Amino acid sequence: MLNFILRRVLVAIPTILVLIIFSFLLMHSAPGGPFTSERPLPPEVMANIEAKYGLDQPLWKQMYDYVIGIVTQFDFGPSFRYKDRSVNDIIAQGFPVTLTYGSIAFVVAVVSGVTLGAVAALRQNTWLDYFAVGVSIGAQVLPNFVMAPLLVLVFTLYLGWLPGGGWEGGQIQFIILPVIALATSYMASIARITRSSMLEVLRSNFIRTAKAKGLPSRKIILGHALKPSLLPVISYLGPAFVAMITGSVIIDVYFSTGGIGQLFVNSALNRDYSTIMGITILTGVLTISFNTLVDILYAWIDPKIRY
Amino acid sequence: MRYATTKMTAALLAASFLSGPVLAAGTHPTTGEALADDQTFTYRVLDEHSSVDPQIVEDVSGAEIVRDLFEGLYNQDEDGNLVPGVALSHEVSDDKLTYTFKLRDNAKWSNGEPVTANDFVFAWKRAVNPETASPYAWYMELMSIANGADIIAGEKPVDELGVKAVDDLTLEVTLSQPLPYFPQMVTHSTTFPSPEAVIAEHGADWTKPGNIVSNGAYILTEHVLNERSVRERNEMYWDNENTILDKVVAVVINDENQALTRYMAGELDRTEVPAGQFPRLKEENPDEAINFPRLCNYYYTFNLSDGGPEAFKDVRVRKALAYAVDRNVIVENVLQGGQFPAYTFTPGATAGFEVPEVDYANWSQAERDEKAKELLAEAGYGPDNPLSFDMLYNTSEAHKKIATVMSQMWKQKLGVEATLNNMEWKTFLDVRGKQDFELARGAWCGDYNEASTFLDLVTSPSGYNDGKYSNATVDELMTGARTAENPQENYTQVEMTLAEEMPVIPVYHYAGVYMLNDQLKNWPINNVEQNWYSKNLYKVAE
Amino acid sequence: MVIDQTKMADLADNLAQMDEVKGRSLWQDARQRFFHNKAAVGGLICLTLVVLFAIIGPYFAVWSNEEIDWAIIGNAATMGAPSIANGHYFGVDDLGRDLYSRVIQGTQISLMVGIVGASISVVVGTLYGATAGYFGGRLDGAMMRTVDILMSIPYMFVLILLLVIFGRSISLLFIGIGLISWLDMSRIVRGQTLTIKNKEFVEAALATGVSSFTIIRRHIIPNLLGVVAVYATLLVPLMILTESFISFLGLGVQEPNTSWGALISEGAGTMQYGTIWQLGFPLFFFVVTLFSFFFIGDGLRDALDPKDR
User: Fold this and answer.
1) Neighbours of A64 (CB within 10 A)
2) Does the N terminus or the C terminus of chain C have fewer Cβ atoms within 10 A?
């Protein structure tokens, strides 16, 4: 196991490097730059700005300095757009926001999805099952850019129960709507996966044996059926978590939460090179670590798998 | 952690209010209206501002905040006239090259230090210093301060800038050429003072809440990127007693429909009205839906450079396309917010500008269409040789609507095929700046309230003349206008030439279209530049 | 919004157990089972109707998808509701353009994005996986490590970057969306190829001197068909969803062309302004199609992987 983790980390380093170089080149080949503006700047003003941000250096030098800055000082540079802020600063503020509502939504989606899926499987072909399946597919296909404004319309404008946006340091009333909007489609996917794998497990021989032995059904479900049913759910969690972080663009746009999703899109549009790089690296590292974590979890639940 | 500290500051401030003058919950000192208990103004901004550093800020939403946090030599009143700020008055030397400003003696920074002429000297030198790399350094060049341009280009030391503190309350500015509108220019944020000691202490972090020291009516107490920024009453401000609003909150909401929903839910005091929604809102909330003219135009520019399409080199084609656009439909059926159909480049709201009588403005649309068909046929385009081109605009719901409507007007009236092509902002600017387009959208908001801010754009040397229209007479007229006794004559001639040669298609002139809480009073709707100051606003009781 | 990989692996295992002779009866069995699945058949019918709508619909349209009804422009809320009389069966959008025609056009584009995107992903994934699995050894190791690396890239971000940089174009959208999702496919195909490779019939073919290419073409690919078909069906809705997200960001297709994503996001913006049909019609077709694809995909998988026989 240790060997496996070590190998993963070793692969991660070149991966991140490739990611840095790729995004760096991609970004710099985009038309326009961070200081292209509606009113073209006089050349002498532009020259001063480029000198300040090191954009007058050759590209390889910029990239080299950038990587060295990260490795030696963990410094992602100044933001080209938000001139009062450094990228470290910006991410330190935006990432906790995304992580907070992302993780809560993740937990909500997993817990409610597994419950819904398991209930549907245990009561297969009853109204409860049909209801659960209907809800989960409906939630899966309703785009969250329809869901988000709908939630605000209902809970903010008509009912007046919850604020329609903002974050305010993460007070509970500001978290609820983003979490609902983000969690639903993942909850639906998880419910569908749980239901079908649970059905399969319930039909398998060892459950039949357990039933034949006369074990109480609660014990069968919790003690025998649940763990193997969750295997496919777990393999889904890695990509789901990452998708939640990247999918947060819509949440940020509609709920003004100030997370990194919207920040990434804005930075790409503003050509804020350093901020884009910072967020890309962050999500890259996150993706790798989460995939590794899921693999470890998987091995722990399913002893058949060896690395 | 930062959050906790800003909350602390907020708590401290709240406590200090109790001891300060309690104006809220009273009556307005001059009008006598009953004031609301909660004097908080919350408004929506589309995008996060770039900075609150007066010498660095470059966007409108940032400048709005900076105008509240800092105070320059002069301010604008509700109609856009100059009123004293830190300066009480000024004198001009006979050669019109030296301006001497007298500063008030009771102006203070939020840390209690007095505001002196040296703070302005420091700030102005900072703005032109190549190390500061201010994107608005060009503004200092425009102000023609002696040696400014050379310092920016790195050819002279910063200390040679033509500005000095004669004593603590006297600021002397030397210009390189006479500039009649120089006093108007010092209302701009780039010229605001900045606190030398604080910048030396905190470096790039000096604008963060907790560090920042400012001399305006408000201080920055909270700033969460892409979410909100909060400014609260500055107890040290010299006119604090007459400041009524306690707290101003700018909330970033990207989606305009979402912003409107939140306004309707009572979360905001001001938001923009999405295109097409004004008539309905006006009917439902007559006191809250407001509109007023703005100092901006909206047009499409032909690419007249050598690389541009051959067809547009023919003035008949340009005129035909310009005539066939039914501006009334765009204004009344698409935007629906009280915008003005445009037949001239300069908006009619511009101070001292008389809209010239250009011929096609007075025709009926049927006459224009008729003429357009004739002209296009004369130019040799018709069913067997249809005109087709690309029209470029930047990604936005409203631009898309206008481009779609214009292309359909051309298609249905003239049989012209205009292919829509939208690009995101930076790519759009890059492509347009390189003349890599055929017909492109353009818009301009006046830097100052005078027709030359618009008409300079169609002169050959203008950096913003992306269509590369060039007419020696126009250039000459605009140069002449700077020193002319009555520049209006020149402006009229330039507008007439534009109508005759049609290098651009004027489409409409802007209006500000807001939903504004009817409790909030004194919004400066007559200030076409929309330079508003929170200290002049107040909220009345319901 | 990801396909259940465990089930796909199961299915692949199951299909790999069959040998060629039984293969034929497998498909017959599967067809029978598929047509006994009510949800799957319902999905197939709905999908057929949607496709028919996209093909035949234009013949009933009174207005084209870009024509503006000058009598209605700007008054969508009061005069633009669905009406048989003026030919706007689905109402009009804010500019007075016929929503019926626009929905048809959106359907065509979205289905195309879904199908082409899924095909790209399936073709690339299959070729890559089959090559790695068949040749094995170092090549396999290197190819699969590459997949591991690529899997760690935050794709949605890269796609946004690409669209920003190269400008929007429908082909880039196809390629970008397709290339995002071939990685899982290649893993499954590789696994299955490994199993098939060790079957007697492949060994027999090898012994008689049949070339690698022929073996892949004659023996490996046909045995992969089942899993590929299921995967492709489940990928299409994911592609459509991705496209809708891209359209929401304003990086989708160019006007006057449109897609479900573009129509829905426009409609969602104006839903409280009394023009609910602008959201309703495109959303209806979007939801029905996605439902159908999910049911058909699930049905196909269950039919090919009969655990409860």
Assistant:
1) 12
2) C
